[in-house]
Amino acid sequence: MDLATVGYVACAAVIFLLAIRVPISFAIGGVAVTAIFVVFAFRTGTFMPERAFWTTLSLAFSSSFDLVHSYDLSMIPLFIALGHIAYKAGITTEIYEAARVWLSRLPGGVAIASIAGCGGFSAISGSSIACASTMGRICTPEMMRLNYDPRLATASVAAGGTLGSLIPPSVLFIIYGIFTESSISQLFLAGFLPGVISMLGYTLVVVMWVKRSPEIAPRPDEIVPFRQRMIVGLRCWPAVLLFLTVIGGIYGGFFTATEAAAISLMFATILGIARGLIKVRDIIPLLRETMATTGAIFFIAACAKIFVALIALTGLSNSLVGLLDNAEISVWFFILCVCLIYLVLGMFLDPVGIMVLTLPLMIPMVESYGLNLIWFGVVIVKLLEIGLITPPVGLNVFVLASVLEDKVEIGKIFSGLWRFLGIDIVVLAILILVPAISLYLPMSMN
User: Fold this and answer.
1) Is residue 204 part of a domain?
2) What angle do CA 119, 121, 126 make, to 5 degrees?
3) Which of 75, 181, 203, 210 is the most buried (most CB within 10 A)?
4) pLDDT tens, 228-238?
5) Is residue 269 part of a domain?
């Protein structure tokens, strides 16, 4: 059997297993190991399993070992732990409180503050799911107490939570950088302006929605004095310092992204202990949560790396590039196809799973068109961000509903999200048409 054919059959098998709800790590890992075994067993033309067994194990273990021992991958547990520690230390709550006090008199001000709080949390944690979960506990009950329409109260947090995908540090950018061998520091910087534009877009949605239907967001009667607003605003200095450490340190060339993560985690831990909000005994449970999340991500990535070895072994990526050359597909049609593929996959799979499943096949085709991998990474992460709030399986929506203990129906949350999805498509189009938005900061990096 032709090696490329084995690759195509393996991809079809993965898609079938995912369709019947097999976890993505087992699907891609199991299929990859089986296909590699088949390739080596038939290498001489006759079936010789005894020759393929140890070769398959060696290739599978070496591929996953190299990934797990990657220096860049150490950023993931550091940033995930930082998110947990920052929440326990009250840093993320202070971001939301400051935004709420300063913006509460605006139309839909508390919803806008929730989006700003999600942006601030994203600049610390790097995880969209963690952002939606944490800010859902803080923001949504407050809006419900103020008689906000449940659709606005939930949709603004679900959409705002997706900012964790773009605003650095982002776990998705780390995984993308490792699989494409791109600079993670440049990816972090490339995601900053698109993340800010997305946040402004969500704010615009809230303002226009409330202007059209004022009853969905009553303005609070309380007027906060300027002095109190200044005090609350100054309490955000830890969050500002953490953000400057990550972005300013990377942009100025003072730290690598991994060093920035370690320094930020150490600072947040010391601050939490000094404030009395974190006891030494609290650190173990927080690290246990970090290990559980990190372990799941690492296992998916390790299985994906074995799948990458299969693709290299069968020459599948070269076959796909050859098909593109023969079909003479234009670059814009290719980008449109990429967008459609990721939008459809985003309806059913989690972002990490989509990324590790598609990147090994997608990147050789991207390189064949001469597209910039940093810019393409921003486009991919934006597409994955959209998938987090796209029905029927928008992860942020289900996480938020779980946090609220089903006090708001999932259907009602989705009904408030279509406006945010609309602005996401607009922002995506802008990022595709104007690559300079994504590339300005990384290209000016020292």
Assistant:
1) yes
2) 95
3) 75
4) 778 877 887 88
5) yes
